[in-house]
Amino acid sequence: MSQLNDIFDRLFASKIPTEVILESQQFSVFENLAKSHDIEQVRPPIEELRSLFGKENSIFSRSIGTHPDFLDTSILPHHQYVCSLFLDISGSTKLGLKFPLSKVRLYKNAILSTAIELFQAFDGHIHRLQGDAVFAYFGHKEMKKSDAIINALNAASLMQSYNKHTLSKFFEENKLPPLRIRIGIDIGDDSEVLWSEYGIGNVTEVTSTSIHTDLAAKLQSQSPRNRIMIGENVYNYLDLSDKFFDVKTHTENGDTVEDKYVLKDTNLYAYYQMRVFNWEKYLDSFSSLPKSKSEGRIYSSPTDFELICSVKKEEDEPFKKYCQNSYSLEKGMHLRFELLNYASMPIGNIKWKVINYGTEAEQSESGLEYFMEQSEGEYVCEQSTAYTGLHFMECYIYNHGGNLIAKDKFGIFINDEIRDFRRLGVPESG
């Protein structure tokens, strides 16, 4: 993931004045980046990041406070879904033991402002900053609910990766313990989220009233350090495979006990589950992101070859490039997977394998995994979208001796936007 880490390093370095980096012994890993601050870059790091995830439109929001859908308060109160994300950063307090306040403020702002940029890059809206915490909304009236969740997961995953690969270097060089970042994400359907104005006179705030907004903060507090905790609606609406999440556990009297519920009220008969999202495994599944070579294979994507996907809705339409896991596709769309830029590889044979996940696929297919026999030996494989969930096309590359020399997979989200949400709130009367 060197390309992604390079983007993170440049994002962080761009927020620290060049003279501060060059005068400090604590910035050796960013020194070369600092020297290039004054060189005009063809593409800013955040634009490179958006390009990796297929973001072609302009950023949805560059403001803080009132969600752009509700700047006209005359429509309030109003019911509209939203995916809420709450991020809390622990550990930055000790910066005050190492640096004067002016630099503490500089470094803390560099961390928070990068989090803001990452969330905005995935069309999130920053609602509020609370000390070392960020509260953001994902989703708006023109966005599909599944896409709001996907954007939140992608943004949160990159924030955790940024902390692990870039911020950790800064804190290690300063002999400080690493930051602990916890993130909680949940979504409520239209009937479960009420947008309205709170306050009096000129002291007001437009915000969401929803148990699922509240649960995002509670999920954050339940998250293990440097992890992402997601609510039941998040993984159920995407029909996400348990390959990408785990049940939280703790030790009690020497036994391992599962913590499945973020809400468990027996008096009100209210139960709502949570899972720890495995953001590292999720990012490692991206064909477009560099990864380490494994299992003795000497070629890997996207350094030695590329696996791409194109989609179209109608037969007579041209194919359009689809960036992996960037948004959800409708059912019945045509897919075209291609192997490209493989000139340095001694390819003898190619095999394509479908990997389906989710309840719909389980109920409809005799087998969730199968090779596309008609596409063996071809550099192109065509398929179609059929079931809600996160599914993969795997590509196996063999040399002329029949030995496997490379393997990669390309993930696509499919969602028809009709899955039920878990409803916890009391329905409006009348």
From TrEMBL:
GO terms for molecular function: adenylate cyclase activity. InterPro entries: A/G_cyclase (IPR001054), AGS_C (IPR040511), Nucleotide_cyclase (IPR029787). Transmembrane segments: none annotated. CDD domains: CHD. Residues 83-188 form the Guanylate cyclase domain. GO terms for biological process: cyclic nucleotide biosynthetic process; intracellular signal transduction. Gene3D superfamilies: Nucleotide cyclase. This is Guanylate cyclase. It comes from Virgibacillus pantothenticus.
